[in-house]
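ok so heres the complex, two chains, lmk if somethin looks off
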Amino acid sequence: MKFALAVHSAPHTSQSAASALRFARALLAQGHELYRVFFYCDGVHNGSVLAAPPQDEADLVGEWQALQQAHGLDLVVCIAAAQRRGVLSESEAGRLEKSAANLAPGFELAGLGQLADAIANADRLVTFGG
Amino acid sequence: MTLHIVSKSPYGCNALTECLATFAEGDVLLLIEDGVYALTDHKWEAAPAGSVYCLRADAEARGIAIPEKVEGIDDTRWVELCTRHNPIVSWYK
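and the predicted structre for the whole thing:
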């Protein structure tokens, strides 16, 4: 079955972002397809390569990247939500004349249309928020 | 037949109350994260018998005993529940 996930919460704010990762791992382990993970609202912080949690805490950004590499996942960060919160790709940083970019490799910026596309093409959408 | 996922404590917000108000025949309720604190109260008993699940790991992490009428599940069963229900509605406010 094809799943799509919408992640609305930042790492370390609540358990929600970690739950999304856990659920993604569980569905892939059962042979289901993960069509796309769409990071929206505060969820865009999951795509910041500058996050540096202590070594004894989960590194959600790194774990998403590892999962992306292992399964070729489509990790999409909402571009409008990301600009507001300072999560920028090299090209966006250049366009907006900012001095640094921090979008983690393995993630890409795109619009809400990618969420609509995921809802249309996946069999299930599971939202992680709060 | 909706799968309702409640992830917030009933002591901090109305997610569980509002979820239960929309409950229709065949729907099931899954308590995750701080949503498992609902098991220390009686509100969840408004859901039909056999329709309430919780993530066992999240209950254990908080030292909450799972009542007999609630099925504690692991992540694998969570995915299975999602395949058997559509839509999946998350309640977190």
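quick notes: Chain A has a mean pLDDT of 97. thats all i got rn
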